[in-house]
Design a protein that fits this description.
Layout lengths: L1 H18 L1 H14 L1 H4 L9 H18 L11 H19 L14 H21 L3 H27 L22 H11 L8 H12 L4 H8 L4
Helix pairs in contact: 1-2, 1-4, 2-4, 2-6, 2-7, 4-6, 5-6, 8-10
Length: 230
């Protein structure tokens, strides 16, 4: 039943993404950050959710481009240039770095797997720049980190309160052990990024912070310490 639900969600998202590609990109970010295939691994089996979410978004962007609804001048910024330089640097390091083919049993990720994941990250960023092009879309996209962090806060605390977790905490990891959250420091980054600013200058941001703390997001600060973020 859970697998049927997953397929249904992917099919619906596929049709919506081709009509409204920015929704597909937002959903792709949601899948990339939450990694549902690692939490509910039995419902996904060999399914690649990131692939089946990103492809419809790509098709949607292509259709929007043919209709003249994509403004490519949005790529002409200093920030995007810096991102491009970062991509070039990582590519050079991957193909010419002396450490890539060194066998090291203590590292968390294989370079091949990480480089592949990085390509998807840059691709998703590129699509987001092109189609998330107004304030309303940005606000909706920002909800991804809010929803994801709230669920991960529940998930992480459940490991301590109900599943006997002690000490350092890894994020959701499937049976294969290959997950972006296999390293607790990476898992901690999610909570560090989501921490509410204690003294925001903007009055609206301050009010939002107070509401967030009232909703129990204070658990996030404890999780930052428990995951041993450095």
């Amino acid at each position: 039943m859970s697998a049927v639900l997953v397929y249904l969600i992917l099919i619906v998202n596929g049709f919506v993404s081709m009509a409204l590609p920015w929704i597909g990109v937002v959903f792709a970010y949601f899948v990339a950050i939450l990694t549902p295939q690692n939490i509910w691994w039995w419902a996904f089996e060999d399914l690649r959710p990131s692939f089946w979410v990103t492809v419809p978004a790509l098709i949607g962007v292509a259709i929007a481009t043919l209709r003249g609804k994509v403004d490519f001048t949005r790529l002409n910024t200093k920030l995007n240039f810096c991102v491009f330089v970062l991509w070039v640097s990582l590519t050079i390091a991957y193909y010419f770095g002396p450490f890539v083919h060194v066998v090291n049993e203590y590292r968390f990720f294989e370079p091949d797997w990480m480089y592949s994941a990085i390509q998807k990250t840059f691709l998703l960023y590129l699509l987001a720049v092109l189609v998330i092009d107004d304030e309303r879309k940005i606000k909706i996209a920002a909800l991804v980190i809010v929803i994801t962090t709230l669920y991960m806060t529940y998930w992480a605390n459940a490991q301590y309160f109900f599943n006997g977790q002690y000490g350092r905490l890894q994020g959701p990891t499937p049976l294969s052990g290959q997950s972006i959250y296999a390293d607790e420091n990476i898992f901690a980054v999610l909570f560090v990024e989501a921490l509410v600013t204690d003294a925001p200058e903007d009055a609206e941001a301050r009010l939002a912070a107070e509401r967030a703390r009232g909703a129990g997001v204070s658990f996030v600060a404890r999780l930052e310490r428990e995951t041993h973020a450095r």
